[in-house]
Amino acid sequence: MRKIILVLAVIFSPALLLAQANSFPPVDKSPMDMSYYPANYPVQKIQDKITEPLVARVIYSRPQKAGRMIFGGLVKYGEVWRMGANEATEIQFFKNVKIGGKKIRSGRYTLYALVNETSWTIILNNETDTWGAFKYDAKKDVVRVEVPIQKMDAAVEALAMFFEKTTTGANLVVAWDNVKASLPIQF
User: Fold this and answer.
1) Where are the strands (E) in the chain, listed by range?
2) Minimal CA–CA distance to 88: which of 113, 107, 116?
3) N or C: at which end does the chain have fewer Cβ atoms within 10 angstroms?
């Protein structure tokens, strides 16, 4: 009897493993990523190398250019953009900050942008845990800040966001294709 059970286990194990492997969702074409201020905060924390307190984290999906025209094409001028793919981009502040001269309380917010050829209006909104910009509600905006864009010589294939230190806090830098915008954050 034990031999029969062992033979059946050997025969059915690969089929069971294959069935389990097929139950996982496929890999997303626009994977999620996150950036911290200060940069690499979790790694610094476990290495006991923290020199500054945690201020902000942005979580976003990274769509690829993939030969497409991005600004004025995929991302329409004058329409609300979720600043990424899939879920709307979220930013979390771990302390009070100032954006566009307005005090922003610590907490989670969604980032959107109105994009045009020379500047973006970056929007901080109270509605979180949403997909795309389909349910965007301007009544829930916390602040809107117009920032100039910079054209870059080299194109960025996958949307990138990161914080760069400034004398008054940090800029959230958003770069994709040959365009870069920076949102000043004071703290």
Assistant:
1) 32-37, 56-61, 80-81, 90-93, 97-99, 102-104, 107-115, 119-125, 141-165, 169-186
2) 113
3) N
Q: Whose CA is closest to 80, among 128, 117, 120?
A: 120
The answer to whether 96 and 56 are in contact (CB under 8 A) is no
CB neighbour class for 54 (10 Å; exposed up to 12, middle 13-18, buried from 19): middle
Tell me the two tokens of residue 101. 């001269």
Count of positions (residues) in the chain = 187
Whole-number Å distance between alpha carbons of 58 and 103 = 18
Q: Where are the domains of the chain?
A: 28-186
pLDDT tens digits, 112-170? 999 999 999 999 999 999 999 999 999 999 999 999 999 999 999 999 999 999 999 99
Q: Running DSSP on this structure, what letter comes out for residue 139?
A: G
| Alpha-carbon span 43 to 9, nearest angstrom | 43
